[in-house]
Predict the structure of Probable GTP-binding protein EngB.
Amino acid sequence: LFAAECRFFYAAQRLDQLPEPDRPEIAFAGRSNVGKSTLINALTGHKALARASSQPGRTKQLNFFDLGQRLTLVDMPGYGYAEAAKAVKEDWQGLMFDFLRGRPTLRRVLLLLDSRIEIKANDLEAMKLLDRAAVSFQLVLTKSDAPKPPVLAAKRVAVEALARKHAAAHPEVILTSSETGLGITELRATLAELALP
Ligand code: GTP
Ligand code: MG
């Protein structure tokens, strides 16, 4: 699947502009700067297909990427970005949460958590929302190259406990790093199972 050509094909600023819901979709959600766009690039083997940035608030739309017409990856704006103007922030976040709740073709949400940062109230809110909407999600610990091994191990245990507390959460937590490539092969295999044949 990931050997197929991956291309950007759509950007939506509003819910009434979404592409036809005609194939399985995987959404990448999480705090601003957690590494959503970077993870899409790592999975698809591109350097800058999804635009990543050290500045939080980089992704402001829903960006759709096609993988061989079998699976769509959706790069979402992040939440929890304090510096954006309030109205702008509410627009992106409203778009993100409405999409997560209402998209019929959404097969799984990858909810990314930064392994260097404490889990915040808005991460827990996002899990609650997915749980209530019964949208299957999987927790991914990003930037696993950064913490010291014992810190990372403790974080993993904590995140696995969170997964067990949410009915819609996949029990397995995936650790990734776009620096070392950790978890990328594993995540590709997971996503390939959700693609059209
Ligand atoms: P928004 O679009 O603002 O919501 O952010 P995002 O979640 O798309 O984050 P993005 O991919 O733009 O990455 C944010 C920053 O984190 C960039 O400076 C990346 O280089 C860095 N980053 C992403 N993944 C990793 C990783 O695995 N390891 C390390 N060390 N840095 C990473
Ligand atoms: Mg982004």
User: Anything to note?
Assistant: The chain has five helices and seven strands. The two ends are 9 Å apart (CA to CA). The mean pLDDT is 93. Residues 6-192 form a domain with the Rossmann fold fold (CATH 3.40.50.300).
